[in-house]
Amino acid sequence: MSEKIVLAYSGGLDTSVAIPWLNDKGYDVIAAILDVGQAGKDMDAIQAKATQVGAVQSIVVHAQDEFADDYVTPVIKANALYEGAYPLVSALSRPLIIKKLVEIAHENDAHAIAHGSTGKGNDQVRFEAAIHALDSNLKIEAPIRDFHWSREEEIDYAKEHNVPVPIGKASPYSIDANLWGRANEAGILENPWNQAPDDAWGMSVSPEEAPDEAAFLDLDFEKGIPVALNGEKMKLSELIKKLNEIAGANGIGRIDKIENRLVGIKSREVYEAPAAAVIMTAHKDLEDLTLERDVAHYKPIVEQQITNLIYDAMWISPLFDALLAFIDSTQQVVNGTVKMKLYKGQAVPVARKSATNSLYDENLATYTSADSFDQVAAGGFIKLWSLPTMVFEQVNHVHSDKLGE
Ligand code: ARG
Fold this sequence. Notes:
Layout: E1 3-8, H1 13-24, E2 27-35, H2 43-52, E3 57-62, H3 64-77, H4 89-107, E4 112-114, H5 123-134, E5 139-141, H6 143-147, H7 151-160, E6 174-178, E7 181-185, E8 215-222, E9 225-229, E10 232-233, H8 236-249, E11 254-260, E12 266-272, H9 274-290, H10 293-311, H11 318-330, E13 336-343, E14 346-353, H12 362-365, H13 375-385, H14 387-396
């Protein structure tokens, strides 16, 4: 009897040729298709294709809400941008995909999992680190990495095994997409001096093509998470989808980046994350209004750590859990509304309020007669604040000796 294997199936050529390849190795393939909100994909067609090319079973897992609620939320709360720019689109879906694959393996008494990642990317590490953590007894197959097909060999193999090969001009790019955004690499993008052509983008118009009128919108946050758009409450997955449309139409969220991969190489990727750009900018703005100064100044240290853990395949790790607990505790007060202006590629906060948690006290900040700030106390404060440097200068004269030079 052949052994069962659960394959992370996307419907593309790589994971499609993986099916006969795994069959040849003696596996019965259960194809698992994860719906994490990749726009424009016909899940039924992908499901049918898997069995057509040789899977014994093909399962679609609808995981958009779980993806939004459990995987995107830490990124929003932690303002997590890898190397200051990339909102971790692909890095986020990997641990969820593996969680679902391991569940399917357990339900179906399968003892192996396969993925279609190459040997040069971060995703293989994210997939396999998560498998090792969740069930170290599972065997891992990585046909695309281990077989090392050239494109021509892959197409020949596909033809021999009745795997449909895209006719005409196949996409020159390697694209990964979900609710939170889209990542595109390879093809003409491999030369970082080549500007990304129009067809490299899929979720946004260019800023030049965006409307000449600015769009304004209000985002309500509860505990650091957006819960309403223009006053209308909606679940997070819905809100992200709506914002992707609105912000994408305003040319927002394009990122063209050279990045440092975990496996040591630099790569060039173009990302689109319109909703993420709006939500994360608004979130940071609301934090500026509601976080106490020391928390606000300390949090970026934790943010950077947690961002790198997510990128570097350590979603399942005790340090991630501990840092997320810190982040969550800071978010209890991040409640309020931010008004965003979207205009030709830019999303900027233009107004903000928090009825319950604003630390902005107009009576303390004002220069009018309503002033309640104790200006007399400021003189004494400055004396004590500068006491250590005053004493140091009196003893060492580092700067005071240079007067008049
Ligand atoms: N470089 C990004 C990451 O490691 C995205 C990888 C997605 N793959 C792609 N085919 N574009 O998270």
